[in-house]
Amino acid sequence: MSRLRSALAVAALAGALASPSVLAQPAWEDLGRAATDAEVQAWDIDVRPDFTGLPAGSGSVDDGMDLWEETCTVCHGIFGESNAIFTPLIGGTTAEDVESGHVGSLARGDHPGATTFMKVPTISTIWDYIYRAMPWDHPKSLSPDDVYAVTAYLLNLADIVPADFELSNDNIAEVQEKMPNRNGMTLEHAMWPGNEFGTGYIKPDVQAEACMENCADEPQITSEIPETERNTWGNLREQNRSVGPQRGADTTRPEGKLGDARGPVKVVGPKDRAAGGASARALELIQESGCAACHGVVRTMIGPAYVDIAKRYPGGVDYLTGRIISGGSGDWGDVQMPPQDISEADARLIAEWIAAGAEE
Ligand code: HEC
Ligand code: HEC
Fold first, then answer.
1. What is the average pLDDT value for the chain, to the nearest integer?
2. How far, CA to CA in Å, does 321 sit from each of 11, 130, 340?
3. Which CA distances in Å does 141 have to 79, 132, 191, 250?
4. Lowest mean pLDDT among 17-31, 111-125, 134-148, 170-184
5. Which ligand is nearest to the CA of 351?
6. Atom 16 of ligand 2 has which residue's CA nearest to it?
7. Is there an atom of ligand 1 within 6 Å of 141 CB?
Protein backbone atom coordinates (compact mmCIF):
# COMPACT_ATOMS: atom_id res chain seq x y z
CA MET A 1 0.00 0.00 0.00
CA SER A 2 1.39 3.40 -0.88
CA ARG A 3 1.90 5.88 1.92
CA LEU A 4 -0.83 8.04 0.52
CA ARG A 5 -3.32 5.19 0.39
CA SER A 6 -2.56 4.00 3.91
CA ALA A 7 -2.91 7.57 5.17
CA LEU A 8 -6.29 7.77 3.48
CA ALA A 9 -7.29 4.43 4.94
CA VAL A 10 -6.40 5.64 8.45
CA ALA A 11 -8.32 8.84 7.85
CA ALA A 12 -11.31 6.87 6.64
CA LEU A 13 -11.17 4.60 9.70
CA ALA A 14 -10.88 7.58 12.05
CA GLY A 15 -13.76 9.17 10.22
CA ALA A 16 -15.82 6.03 10.55
CA LEU A 17 -15.15 5.82 14.30
CA ALA A 18 -16.01 9.43 14.86
CA SER A 19 -19.16 9.28 12.81
CA PRO A 20 -22.22 8.89 15.03
CA SER A 21 -24.10 7.00 12.37
CA VAL A 22 -21.54 4.21 12.63
CA LEU A 23 -21.08 4.33 16.41
CA ALA A 24 -24.71 4.67 17.42
CA GLN A 25 -26.74 1.54 17.96
CA PRO A 26 -29.06 0.98 15.05
CA ALA A 27 -32.56 2.45 15.12
CA TRP A 28 -32.53 3.95 18.65
CA GLU A 29 -34.16 7.02 17.20
CA ASP A 30 -37.25 4.92 16.56
CA LEU A 31 -37.68 4.28 20.26
CA GLY A 32 -39.72 6.60 22.45
CA ARG A 33 -40.50 10.23 21.74
CA ALA A 34 -39.99 13.58 23.36
CA ALA A 35 -42.41 14.29 26.20
CA THR A 36 -45.03 16.86 25.23
CA ASP A 37 -45.31 20.15 27.11
CA ALA A 38 -48.54 18.94 28.66
CA GLU A 39 -46.87 15.77 29.93
CA VAL A 40 -43.97 17.68 31.45
CA GLN A 41 -46.44 20.05 33.07
CA ALA A 42 -48.38 17.18 34.64
CA TRP A 43 -45.20 16.16 36.51
CA ASP A 44 -43.92 19.66 37.17
CA ILE A 45 -46.06 20.36 40.23
CA ASP A 46 -43.52 21.61 42.76
CA VAL A 47 -44.34 24.69 44.79
CA ARG A 48 -41.33 26.75 45.87
CA PRO A 49 -40.88 28.80 49.04
CA ASP A 50 -41.56 31.97 47.00
CA PHE A 51 -44.79 30.27 45.79
CA THR A 52 -43.59 29.80 42.22
CA GLY A 53 -45.66 26.93 40.87
CA LEU A 54 -48.58 27.39 43.27
CA PRO A 55 -51.88 26.86 41.41
CA ALA A 56 -54.58 29.49 41.98
CA GLY A 57 -57.47 28.47 44.21
CA SER A 58 -58.89 28.70 47.70
CA GLY A 59 -60.45 26.67 50.50
CA SER A 60 -61.94 27.37 53.92
CA VAL A 61 -61.18 25.90 57.33
CA ASP A 62 -64.75 24.53 57.39
CA ASP A 63 -64.44 22.71 54.06
CA GLY A 64 -61.04 21.51 55.13
CA MET A 65 -62.47 20.02 58.30
CA ASP A 66 -64.98 17.93 56.35
CA LEU A 67 -62.33 16.74 53.94
CA TRP A 68 -59.91 16.02 56.79
CA GLU A 69 -62.43 13.90 58.63
CA GLU A 70 -63.30 11.93 55.50
CA THR A 71 -59.79 11.49 54.19
CA CYS A 72 -57.02 12.10 56.69
CA THR A 73 -58.29 11.27 60.19
CA VAL A 74 -57.76 7.51 59.86
CA CYS A 75 -54.01 8.01 59.82
CA HIS A 76 -53.35 11.40 61.43
CA GLY A 77 -56.08 11.57 64.10
CA ILE A 78 -59.04 13.95 64.40
CA PHE A 79 -56.84 16.84 65.51
CA GLY A 80 -53.68 15.86 63.60
CA GLU A 81 -52.34 14.67 66.93
CA SER A 82 -52.10 10.92 66.28
CA ASN A 83 -48.75 9.19 66.31
CA ALA A 84 -50.19 5.83 65.27
CA ILE A 85 -49.03 5.95 61.62
CA PHE A 86 -46.64 8.88 61.59
CA THR A 87 -45.40 11.49 64.05
CA PRO A 88 -48.12 14.01 64.95
CA LEU A 89 -48.62 16.93 62.55
CA ILE A 90 -50.00 19.30 65.18
CA GLY A 91 -48.89 20.27 68.68
CA GLY A 92 -45.97 21.88 70.52
CA THR A 93 -46.39 25.39 69.08
CA THR A 94 -47.64 28.49 70.93
CA ALA A 95 -48.91 32.01 70.22
CA GLU A 96 -45.44 33.30 71.14
CA ASP A 97 -43.92 31.08 68.47
CA VAL A 98 -46.33 32.51 65.87
CA GLU A 99 -45.15 35.94 67.01
CA SER A 100 -41.39 35.22 67.01
CA GLY A 101 -41.04 32.64 64.26
CA HIS A 102 -38.97 30.44 66.58
CA VAL A 103 -40.46 27.34 68.20
CA GLY A 104 -39.56 27.56 71.87
CA SER A 105 -40.26 23.94 72.71
CA LEU A 106 -37.60 22.84 70.21
CA ALA A 107 -34.95 24.70 72.20
CA ARG A 108 -36.38 23.72 75.58
CA GLY A 109 -37.01 20.12 74.61
CA ASP A 110 -40.17 20.02 76.72
CA HIS A 111 -42.51 18.68 74.03
CA PRO A 112 -42.32 14.94 73.39
CA GLY A 113 -41.18 14.57 69.79
CA ALA A 114 -41.15 17.25 67.11
CA THR A 115 -44.43 17.69 65.25
CA THR A 116 -44.64 18.84 61.64
CA PHE A 117 -45.69 22.37 62.57
CA MET A 118 -42.87 22.63 65.11
CA LYS A 119 -40.34 21.90 62.38
CA VAL A 120 -41.47 23.07 58.98
CA PRO A 121 -40.55 26.70 58.27
CA THR A 122 -42.44 27.16 54.98
CA ILE A 123 -46.17 26.78 54.33
CA SER A 124 -45.34 26.10 50.68
CA THR A 125 -43.74 22.83 51.79
CA ILE A 126 -46.91 21.67 53.53
CA TRP A 127 -49.07 22.66 50.57
CA ASP A 128 -46.73 20.98 48.11
CA TYR A 129 -46.38 17.82 50.19
CA ILE A 130 -50.11 17.33 50.59
CA TYR A 131 -50.71 18.04 46.90
CA ARG A 132 -48.17 15.49 45.69
CA ALA A 133 -48.21 12.84 48.41
CA MET A 134 -51.39 12.80 50.49
CA PRO A 135 -53.56 10.95 51.29
CA TRP A 136 -50.86 8.33 51.47
CA ASP A 137 -53.02 5.63 49.91
CA HIS A 138 -54.30 7.91 47.08
CA PRO A 139 -51.62 10.49 46.30
CA LYS A 140 -52.44 13.23 43.78
CA SER A 141 -56.18 12.68 44.23
CA LEU A 142 -56.84 16.13 45.74
CA SER A 143 -57.70 19.21 43.65
CA PRO A 144 -55.87 22.48 44.38
CA ASP A 145 -58.99 23.77 46.19
CA ASP A 146 -59.04 20.61 48.34
CA VAL A 147 -55.42 21.20 49.30
CA TYR A 148 -56.09 24.85 50.19
CA ALA A 149 -59.01 23.75 52.37
CA VAL A 150 -57.24 20.97 54.24
CA THR A 151 -54.14 23.14 54.70
CA ALA A 152 -56.37 25.89 56.12
CA TYR A 153 -57.80 23.36 58.56
CA LEU A 154 -54.32 22.28 59.70
CA LEU A 155 -53.32 25.94 60.11
CA ASN A 156 -56.40 26.44 62.28
CA LEU A 157 -55.60 23.37 64.39
CA ALA A 158 -52.13 24.83 64.92
CA ASP A 159 -53.73 28.17 66.06
CA ILE A 160 -52.13 30.05 63.18
CA VAL A 161 -55.37 31.18 61.49
CA PRO A 162 -58.91 31.69 62.89
CA ALA A 163 -61.81 29.28 62.33
CA ASP A 164 -63.48 31.50 59.67
CA PHE A 165 -60.31 31.70 57.57
CA GLU A 166 -60.18 30.99 53.86
CA LEU A 167 -56.72 30.22 52.50
CA SER A 168 -55.93 31.17 48.90
CA ASN A 169 -53.03 31.87 46.57
CA ASP A 170 -53.64 35.56 47.31
CA ASN A 171 -53.14 35.40 51.09
CA ILE A 172 -50.79 32.44 51.53
CA ALA A 173 -47.77 34.79 51.70
CA GLU A 174 -49.36 36.48 54.74
CA VAL A 175 -49.79 33.09 56.39
CA GLN A 176 -46.10 32.41 55.80
CA GLU A 177 -45.39 35.40 58.05
CA LYS A 178 -47.08 33.52 60.90
CA MET A 179 -45.47 30.09 60.52
CA PRO A 180 -44.19 29.18 64.01
CA ASN A 181 -40.77 28.00 62.88
CA ARG A 182 -40.28 30.40 59.95
CA ASN A 183 -37.11 31.85 61.49
CA GLY A 184 -35.89 28.50 62.73
CA MET A 185 -34.23 27.42 59.52
CA THR A 186 -30.74 28.52 58.62
CA LEU A 187 -29.38 28.55 55.10
CA GLU A 188 -25.87 28.96 56.48
CA HIS A 189 -24.84 25.40 55.93
CA ALA A 190 -22.86 23.53 53.37
CA MET A 191 -25.79 21.66 51.90
CA TRP A 192 -27.68 24.75 50.73
CA PRO A 193 -27.23 25.43 47.00
CA GLY A 194 -24.51 28.04 46.54
CA ASN A 195 -22.71 27.13 49.75
CA GLU A 196 -20.97 24.04 48.47
CA PHE A 197 -17.23 23.63 48.24
CA GLY A 198 -15.64 26.09 45.86
CA THR A 199 -18.53 28.55 45.91
CA GLY A 200 -19.52 30.49 48.99
CA TYR A 201 -18.47 27.43 50.99
CA ILE A 202 -19.71 27.37 54.55
CA LYS A 203 -18.46 24.82 57.03
CA PRO A 204 -20.80 22.05 58.08
CA ASP A 205 -22.51 22.72 61.40
CA VAL A 206 -20.23 20.36 63.28
CA GLN A 207 -17.08 22.39 63.69
CA ALA A 208 -13.98 21.01 65.28
CA GLU A 209 -10.30 21.59 64.82
CA ALA A 210 -8.47 18.38 64.08
CA CYS A 211 -5.57 17.92 66.48
CA MET A 212 -2.59 16.69 64.51
CA GLU A 213 0.10 16.54 67.23
CA ASN A 214 0.52 16.61 71.02
CA CYS A 215 -3.11 15.71 71.43
CA ALA A 216 -2.97 14.79 75.09
CA ASP A 217 -6.51 16.00 75.69
CA GLU A 218 -7.99 13.95 72.93
CA PRO A 219 -11.10 12.28 74.34
CA GLN A 220 -11.18 8.53 74.54
CA ILE A 221 -14.56 7.11 73.63
CA THR A 222 -15.48 3.80 75.17
CA SER A 223 -18.63 2.00 76.21
CA GLU A 224 -19.18 -0.99 78.39
CA ILE A 225 -21.89 -3.20 79.80
CA PRO A 226 -21.38 -4.68 83.27
CA GLU A 227 -20.65 -8.39 82.91
CA THR A 228 -23.74 -9.24 84.99
CA GLU A 229 -26.03 -7.45 82.50
CA ARG A 230 -24.40 -8.83 79.38
CA ASN A 231 -27.08 -11.36 78.51
CA THR A 232 -30.03 -9.59 80.13
CA TRP A 233 -31.86 -9.05 76.84
CA GLY A 234 -31.04 -12.42 75.34
CA ASN A 235 -28.25 -13.19 72.90
CA LEU A 236 -27.67 -10.05 70.80
CA ARG A 237 -26.01 -12.08 68.11
CA GLU A 238 -29.20 -14.00 67.44
CA GLN A 239 -31.28 -10.84 67.34
CA ASN A 240 -29.25 -9.13 64.65
CA ARG A 241 -30.44 -8.86 61.09
CA SER A 242 -29.14 -11.73 59.06
CA VAL A 243 -27.99 -9.42 56.26
CA GLY A 244 -25.12 -6.97 56.31
CA PRO A 245 -21.89 -6.98 58.24
CA GLN A 246 -23.28 -6.52 61.75
CA ARG A 247 -23.08 -9.72 63.67
CA GLY A 248 -23.70 -8.46 67.21
CA ALA A 249 -21.86 -9.73 70.26
CA ASP A 250 -22.54 -13.24 71.48
CA THR A 251 -23.76 -12.19 74.89
CA THR A 252 -24.00 -15.74 76.21
CA ARG A 253 -20.20 -15.74 76.38
CA PRO A 254 -17.87 -13.46 78.32
CA GLU A 255 -16.65 -10.44 76.38
CA GLY A 256 -13.75 -11.03 74.02
CA LYS A 257 -14.42 -14.73 73.63
CA LEU A 258 -15.39 -16.46 70.39
CA GLY A 259 -18.27 -14.76 68.61
CA ASP A 260 -17.79 -11.35 70.13
CA ALA A 261 -18.59 -8.69 67.54
CA ARG A 262 -15.49 -6.76 68.47
CA GLY A 263 -13.22 -9.67 67.68
CA PRO A 264 -12.55 -10.56 64.06
CA VAL A 265 -15.42 -12.47 62.48
CA LYS A 266 -14.18 -15.92 61.61
CA VAL A 267 -15.05 -16.82 58.05
CA VAL A 268 -15.11 -20.54 57.52
CA GLY A 269 -14.65 -21.68 53.95
CA PRO A 270 -14.74 -25.15 52.35
CA LYS A 271 -11.16 -25.81 53.47
CA ASP A 272 -12.04 -25.43 57.13
CA ARG A 273 -15.11 -27.51 56.60
CA ALA A 274 -12.97 -30.39 55.32
CA ALA A 275 -10.86 -29.89 58.42
CA GLY A 276 -13.88 -30.36 60.65
CA GLY A 277 -15.51 -26.90 60.55
CA ALA A 278 -18.94 -28.28 59.65
CA SER A 279 -20.70 -26.72 62.61
CA ALA A 280 -19.24 -23.34 61.77
CA ARG A 281 -20.43 -23.73 58.19
CA ALA A 282 -23.89 -24.76 59.40
CA LEU A 283 -24.07 -21.66 61.59
CA GLU A 284 -23.05 -19.56 58.61
CA LEU A 285 -25.72 -21.12 56.44
CA ILE A 286 -28.29 -20.40 59.12
CA GLN A 287 -27.30 -16.72 58.95
CA GLU A 288 -27.17 -16.62 55.15
CA SER A 289 -30.47 -18.42 54.64
CA GLY A 290 -32.46 -16.17 56.94
CA CYS A 291 -33.21 -18.94 59.48
CA ALA A 292 -31.75 -16.76 62.25
CA ALA A 293 -34.72 -14.41 61.94
CA CYS A 294 -36.91 -17.13 63.50
CA HIS A 295 -34.59 -19.58 65.28
CA GLY A 296 -31.98 -19.10 67.97
CA VAL A 297 -29.46 -21.76 68.85
CA VAL A 298 -30.48 -21.82 72.50
CA ARG A 299 -33.35 -19.34 72.55
CA THR A 300 -36.93 -20.02 71.50
CA MET A 301 -37.96 -17.26 69.14
CA ILE A 302 -40.70 -17.50 66.48
CA GLY A 303 -39.57 -21.06 65.94
CA PRO A 304 -38.04 -23.54 68.38
CA ALA A 305 -34.38 -23.31 69.51
CA TYR A 306 -32.03 -25.64 67.63
CA VAL A 307 -30.92 -27.31 70.86
CA ASP A 308 -34.56 -28.24 71.54
CA ILE A 309 -35.04 -29.57 68.00
CA ALA A 310 -31.82 -31.54 68.49
CA LYS A 311 -33.21 -33.19 71.63
CA ARG A 312 -36.37 -34.23 69.82
CA TYR A 313 -34.74 -35.74 66.73
CA PRO A 314 -31.30 -37.11 67.64
CA GLY A 315 -29.79 -38.54 64.47
CA GLY A 316 -32.82 -37.57 62.37
CA VAL A 317 -30.81 -36.13 59.49
CA ASP A 318 -33.09 -37.19 56.62
CA TYR A 319 -36.24 -36.11 58.37
CA LEU A 320 -34.81 -32.72 59.34
CA THR A 321 -33.43 -32.11 55.84
CA GLY A 322 -36.91 -32.59 54.42
CA ARG A 323 -38.57 -30.41 57.04
CA ILE A 324 -36.11 -27.56 56.53
CA ILE A 325 -36.99 -27.49 52.83
CA SER A 326 -40.74 -28.02 53.13
CA GLY A 327 -41.46 -26.05 56.32
CA GLY A 328 -44.63 -26.96 58.17
CA SER A 329 -46.56 -26.37 61.37
CA GLY A 330 -48.20 -28.10 64.30
CA ASP A 331 -45.16 -29.79 65.82
CA TRP A 332 -44.15 -26.91 68.06
CA GLY A 333 -47.17 -24.64 67.89
CA ASP A 334 -49.56 -22.96 65.48
CA VAL A 335 -47.04 -20.72 63.79
CA GLN A 336 -46.08 -21.94 60.37
CA MET A 337 -42.53 -22.27 59.10
CA PRO A 338 -42.64 -21.28 55.42
CA PRO A 339 -40.92 -23.56 52.87
CA GLN A 340 -37.25 -22.54 52.59
CA ASP A 341 -35.45 -21.64 49.40
CA ILE A 342 -32.34 -23.65 50.19
CA SER A 343 -30.44 -26.38 48.33
CA GLU A 344 -30.78 -29.93 49.58
CA ALA A 345 -27.02 -30.07 50.22
CA ASP A 346 -27.13 -26.97 52.43
CA ALA A 347 -30.27 -28.14 54.23
CA ARG A 348 -28.55 -31.46 54.91
CA LEU A 349 -25.51 -29.71 56.34
CA ILE A 350 -27.71 -27.82 58.78
CA ALA A 351 -29.69 -30.98 59.55
CA GLU A 352 -26.48 -32.88 60.33
CA TRP A 353 -25.42 -30.14 62.70
CA ILE A 354 -28.80 -30.13 64.45
CA ALA A 355 -29.02 -33.93 64.62
CA ALA A 356 -25.55 -34.00 66.18
CA GLY A 357 -26.69 -31.78 69.05
CA ALA A 358 -26.67 -28.21 67.64
CA GLU A 359 -23.49 -27.23 69.40
CA GLU A 360 -21.91 -23.90 68.56
C1 HEC B 1 -53.15 5.87 54.92
C2 HEC B 1 -52.54 6.75 55.89
C3 HEC B 1 -52.54 8.26 55.61
C4 HEC B 1 -53.57 9.03 55.18
C5 HEC B 1 -55.01 8.61 54.85
C6 HEC B 1 -53.06 10.38 55.14
N7 HEC B 1 -51.76 10.40 55.52
FE8 HEC B 1 -50.58 12.05 55.64
N9 HEC B 1 -48.98 10.87 56.10
C10 HEC B 1 -49.02 9.50 56.25
C11 HEC B 1 -47.66 9.01 56.38
C12 HEC B 1 -47.25 7.56 56.56
C13 HEC B 1 -46.81 10.12 56.32
C14 HEC B 1 -45.29 10.13 56.33
C15 HEC B 1 -44.86 9.72 54.95
C16 HEC B 1 -43.38 9.76 54.74
O17 HEC B 1 -42.65 10.40 55.50
O18 HEC B 1 -42.93 9.16 53.75
C19 HEC B 1 -47.68 11.28 56.16
C20 HEC B 1 -47.21 12.59 56.09
C21 HEC B 1 -48.04 13.70 56.00
C22 HEC B 1 -47.57 15.06 56.07
C23 HEC B 1 -46.11 15.48 56.21
C24 HEC B 1 -45.68 15.43 57.63
C25 HEC B 1 -44.19 15.63 57.82
O26 HEC B 1 -43.81 16.11 58.90
O27 HEC B 1 -43.40 15.28 56.94
C28 HEC B 1 -48.65 15.85 55.94
C29 HEC B 1 -48.68 17.37 55.98
C30 HEC B 1 -49.81 14.99 55.76
N31 HEC B 1 -49.38 13.68 55.82
C32 HEC B 1 -51.10 15.43 55.56
C33 HEC B 1 -52.16 14.58 55.24
C34 HEC B 1 -53.44 15.05 54.78
C35 HEC B 1 -53.82 16.49 54.62
C36 HEC B 1 -54.19 13.92 54.53
C37 HEC B 1 -55.60 13.84 54.01
C38 HEC B 1 -55.85 14.54 52.75
C39 HEC B 1 -53.38 12.78 54.84
N40 HEC B 1 -52.14 13.22 55.24
C41 HEC B 1 -53.81 11.49 54.75
C42 HEC B 1 -50.14 8.70 56.24
C43 HEC B 1 -51.39 9.13 55.82
C1 HEC C 1 -40.50 -17.28 59.35
C2 HEC C 1 -39.93 -18.03 60.46
C3 HEC C 1 -39.02 -19.22 60.17
C4 HEC C 1 -37.94 -19.29 59.32
C5 HEC C 1 -37.40 -18.20 58.41
C6 HEC C 1 -37.40 -20.60 59.49
N7 HEC C 1 -38.13 -21.30 60.37
FE8 HEC C 1 -37.76 -23.21 60.98
N9 HEC C 1 -39.46 -23.18 62.07
C10 HEC C 1 -40.29 -22.09 62.25
C11 HEC C 1 -41.42 -22.48 63.06
C12 HEC C 1 -42.56 -21.56 63.49
C13 HEC C 1 -41.25 -23.85 63.36
C14 HEC C 1 -42.19 -24.73 64.15
C15 HEC C 1 -43.17 -25.37 63.19
C16 HEC C 1 -44.04 -26.40 63.86
O17 HEC C 1 -44.62 -26.13 64.90
O18 HEC C 1 -44.14 -27.50 63.30
C19 HEC C 1 -40.01 -24.25 62.73
C20 HEC C 1 -39.49 -25.52 62.78
C21 HEC C 1 -38.25 -25.87 62.34
C22 HEC C 1 -37.64 -27.18 62.50
C23 HEC C 1 -38.26 -28.36 63.27
C24 HEC C 1 -39.21 -29.12 62.39
C25 HEC C 1 -39.91 -30.21 63.13
O26 HEC C 1 -40.42 -31.08 62.42
O27 HEC C 1 -39.96 -30.23 64.34
C28 HEC C 1 -36.39 -27.12 61.93
C29 HEC C 1 -35.36 -28.22 61.84
C30 HEC C 1 -36.24 -25.79 61.37
N31 HEC C 1 -37.38 -25.08 61.61
C32 HEC C 1 -35.13 -25.34 60.71
C33 HEC C 1 -35.08 -24.17 59.99
C34 HEC C 1 -34.00 -23.79 59.13
C35 HEC C 1 -32.72 -24.57 58.94
C36 HEC C 1 -34.33 -22.60 58.56
C37 HEC C 1 -33.58 -21.81 57.51
C38 HEC C 1 -33.21 -22.49 56.31
C39 HEC C 1 -35.62 -22.22 59.11
N40 HEC C 1 -36.03 -23.20 59.95
C41 HEC C 1 -36.27 -21.04 58.81
C42 HEC C 1 -40.09 -20.83 61.74
C43 HEC C 1 -39.13 -20.50 60.81
1. 80
2. 68, 52, 11
3. 22, 9, 33, 50
4. 17-31
5. 2
6. 329
7. no
